[in-house]
Amino acid sequence: MIKAGVVGGTGYTGVELLRLLAQHPQVSLQCITSRKEAGLAVAEMFPSLRGRVDLAFSDPATASLERCDLVFFATPNGVAMEQTPALIEAGVRVIDLAADFRLREVAVWEQWYGMRHACPQLLPSAVYGLPEVNRQAIRAARLVANPGCYPTAVQLGLLPLVEQHLVDLSHLIADAKSGVSGAGRKAEVHSLYSEAADNFKAYGVPGHRHLPEITQGLSVAAREPVGLTFVPHLTPLIRGIHATLYARLKDPGIDLQALYEARYADEPFVDVMPPGSHPETRSVRAANVCRIAVHRPQGGDTAVVLAVEDNLVKGAAGQAIQNMNLMFGLPETTGLTQLPVLP
Amino acid sequence: MIKAGVVGGTGYTGVELLRLLAQHPQVSLQCITSRKEAGLAVAEMFPSLRGRVDLAFSDPATASLERCDLVFFATPNGVAMEQTPALIEAGVRVIDLAADFRLREVAVWEQWYGMRHACPQLLPSAVYGLPEVNRQAIRAARLVANPGCYPTAVQLGLLPLVEQHLVDLSHLIADAKSGVSGAGRKAEVHSLYSEAADNFKAYGVPGHRHLPEITQGLSVAAREPVGLTFVPHLTPLIRGIHATLYARLKDPGIDLQALYEARYADEPFVDVMPPGSHPETRSVRAANVCRIAVHRPQGGDTAVVLAVEDNLVKGAAGQAIQNMNLMFGLPETTGLTQLPVLP
Amino acid sequence: MIKAGVVGGTGYTGVELLRLLAQHPQVSLQCITSRKEAGLAVAEMFPSLRGRVDLAFSDPATASLERCDLVFFATPNGVAMEQTPALIEAGVRVIDLAADFRLREVAVWEQWYGMRHACPQLLPSAVYGLPEVNRQAIRAARLVANPGCYPTAVQLGLLPLVEQHLVDLSHLIADAKSGVSGAGRKAEVHSLYSEAADNFKAYGVPGHRHLPEITQGLSVAAREPVGLTFVPHLTPLIRGIHATLYARLKDPGIDLQALYEARYADEPFVDVMPPGSHPETRSVRAANVCRIAVHRPQGGDTAVVLAVEDNLVKGAAGQAIQNMNLMFGLPETTGLTQLPVLP
Amino acid sequence: MIKAGVVGGTGYTGVELLRLLAQHPQVSLQCITSRKEAGLAVAEMFPSLRGRVDLAFSDPATASLERCDLVFFATPNGVAMEQTPALIEAGVRVIDLAADFRLREVAVWEQWYGMRHACPQLLPSAVYGLPEVNRQAIRAARLVANPGCYPTAVQLGLLPLVEQHLVDLSHLIADAKSGVSGAGRKAEVHSLYSEAADNFKAYGVPGHRHLPEITQGLSVAAREPVGLTFVPHLTPLIRGIHATLYARLKDPGIDLQALYEARYADEPFVDVMPPGSHPETRSVRAANVCRIAVHRPQGGDTAVVLAVEDNLVKGAAGQAIQNMNLMFGLPETTGLTQLPVLP
Fold this sequence. Notes:
Helix content of chain A: 25-40%
Radius of gyration of chain A: 19 Å
Strand order of the largest sheet of chain A: 3-2-1-4-5-7-6
Largest sheet of chain A: 7 strands, parallel
Structural class of chain A: alpha/beta
CATH topology of the largest domain in chain A: Dihydrodipicolinate Reductase, domain 2
Largest interface: A-D, 47 and 47 residues
CATH class of the largest domain in chain A: Alpha Beta
Number of domains of chain A: 2
Order of helices and strands of chain A: EHEHEEHEHEHEHEHEHEEHEEEH
Oligomer: homotetramer
């Protein structure tokens, strides 16, 4: 049994992690910390866990995280980087679901996240936790930077085209739509029901923090810099991301379907749908899978890739557990076989 | 392994049954019938089942249902009663998720359902599948009438009061609210997104088919006729029922909390919440549980009971599997341990 | 032209008031105050008002509200009572959309609202602004307490029964459901989209602030104390309240339909629907109307009244303008003729 | 007063037309036809119109449409083309809200709409009713083809770039998102609440009927053929379209904000928002306006245009009334001054 701790269990990625960990056959949940809610039974805040998670939130100061085999950080950006060095030092492995270890270059990170990085020395050894790209490195990692929700969908959707230089790499477009849980469980006016329901809008068009993460990943895959226009939108879903991706094909004659099927043939959590498909976000609701369909409208030279995921699962907590399974030598699908909830 | 068949797998209770059966460790799914969709891969209609349900819909005429150990009917009212006699004859056990076998009296059934009953001779041996009331009978049953969604929530909410005659039995009130999936997957204008979203209404106030089912169950529990005003409402949820129940206490001094906790102490799928609670439908989303809280506002003589369930799970497919587990001697919770999906 | 000011224009009742006032032919909007947003163009916060409301939020300290003919308070409870005495003194009329002047008894108010009342001396002259009850008094009022959203729907729904003592006055039941905008535009976790969407729950069952307001109004109508069980629920609507009201009839033979039609025959904003109707909240969306239907299920002695309103219009801003029209001698429907938005 | 008739008043564009016409000061509504609902009071089907629209649906065969000054067709594609020749002959003006007269070339129309055109001879005189392009022609028109919902938003968003050849005209991208009312009030499974709520998907990627309409309009504006990739999506809104438009700038140094402000300076129903804006669909809910914002992310050569409209108003019924105002010499904004409903 893996002794696991969760730092910051009061947000949506936190409670989703608890839902999945509580059903994982090889995990023993040791502690869930929350400075603000210390002492409160977890199931009192999240009645969905009644009878299944008996822990109370514990104070981070006294949580003895160093006795865990693995600690998940489901905290705001900037928290994990403060505590990770001591944990790594103590032999604990760490998966950060926030952004602290996602970018290779400290200067870029500090520019986009607006703070000083607390442990730049750990960045070189942090592994970007996208198993479909870094499976071997994740197996050996002591520190995994779990990818962002948008970056997971956009990278999985574009990788087959980018890795083989089949498209104009300087003008990729990612038009992405996210459910509101992606904004977290913070009390903010723009996330209120009466603001976000029956409403649709773009946001962050001038620049979103996931942009450098995506371009970093795609540039590594392409072995050269790529140019990406990334436009995120907020849509009235609780869960779900839909990425609509546009790229100009160098050779319009290519068999996109075969390309994608071959690339993801052995991936347990990427589903390339049949030709002509339009994946729906609900088809992955609450499950750890990214479904992809590829189109070439009117037989032109523009590839249109549609990719969906549950932002809290394959885009966060599920992928974190997938990474945990790899790090601890378990079958990659352990504890991740729940079927999507539809309708 | 239980060899199970599903008749009518294209509706919401059907696909929910498939989701749960596909994850059940003791079930081997033999066939799923649909006259209209025969030949279509189930996963093509419901991509959420891709890779997990490999069957295609089969024609009812050629489905060899008699080779199953158990057949679930997830069909419109009136279908199960046509096919059940032959199956029972062939030694197959049957769970009907529709209403064909729920009412004891043929005349009442025919009045509310507007058709002639095809096999009244089976009614006496049909067991009403509410395990919290009929557990022993279900274990021995060959034919189980799975309760309706409203009746499950309303009965579980009122039983402790009614069984012991603690309230005015002639003036019970059930104000119930249901998500739209309760109306099924039929193409009807009133169930359209643009009709049901951002809208709330009562319906069927003059009389709803679940009324005789509820009064039958409560009258059995009370061992005398009860009087119930039942007002169902449609609310913009996909899944979920919330029943708000009102009853006048004969003795306002009674400890309602203790009463309910005692009644349901050994029930794996009924959760009596702590005093002062307000159960939310999402706290049971996609899981087989009914959560209940009891109140006595301003210390008066009116008991207010709040009961929530997922209409497709504890209100339909989950309860059907709970019944199956009982009928086949399995632990009652087998295959029903999924945690609710929140948010 | 009525020179009108709005104190607290950043909440939902505030912006709704602005929407309606901007379209009112007899109102000249003088100022909209907000301590926090002073200087910000109103249309920058609410782009729906672009080109139609050119004012910026002004600092309450310098707003010269005393130059207005009328000031609306769309503020949290406790603000209006601080500023109203000086305005009244200066000859300005006041409509408070919050609760400061709704309860006759200071002690009751202070108990439910948890603060000391700042101007109890004004309570006797404050008129409760439900035109269907107090039309004449409103015409002459200098200070109007605009009713709460729930109290408007519940009182309009029960008045015909209560005024004539046709029901058991000691055991009235109001099962009310509100959209999320009723909770205001404050950033609070329980009002987040991911908390309130696809979810239904009761709240405040032990006691809600609108309870004493409703019982006060109904007791006045009955000329004796009434007993009410009031259970509010939160439902995934932006706007809308649906009250389902239960009362035991003394004489089940009464013609409820005729009773209601007679009571509201001359009311421009109360619509008694045809027998058998089920009013929908969307049928009043964005319009100043309360629609009511009456039922007596199964011919029993329980009356079931269904009443719907838009909580921001007939339940708040629209009713405030209706009151303004009365106070300033305008036709009562002036500026309130917008048709509901459906779908 | 304009004597107006509506053919097909039971769909969403029909009821929206009724809502707006009932509030229009210069229109006298003569008849509303529906073959299926003949005899039914309009307000019985749409209670939002109670007290304001007193007509019943009349049988098309006996409706005497030829006595109207103007007939609106809010019918499925293929109906208007059957009845329009006789009406035009009788001196009645016609606005078709469906697609029968939108495409110039009969062959293209017949290919996309899968039927034979009934009156190709009228196509040359039909005016495409986008006032921002064809205002003069609309004033003189006897037959107006009201634009589709997507085409309105996409064309208004791209026109300034296309008219002046400022972008690569062969690779325009329109990623558009529509609320579910755009699919009409037909009873179809994919439009059910439980299918469309909490779900997001693309559809029609291989080809959507609005594609030829948009390319026709943009090609006229460009005076040369344009190439467009158009991907529509369904999002859980009742009303609203959000178009996210991508085009590669020939000269990245151009002042996009100034370009758009100049192009739409005199347009009463196009609102160019301040730099950096992200228009929300709710900011135009129930109002006849298209709001646009322009971006050039990271200072690159990709222009990103965001355009929102209410698909039932500026995308259908509101625009039809705008066209009517032009055709009858009224001020263009008559009857169209309702403020958007927010929240």
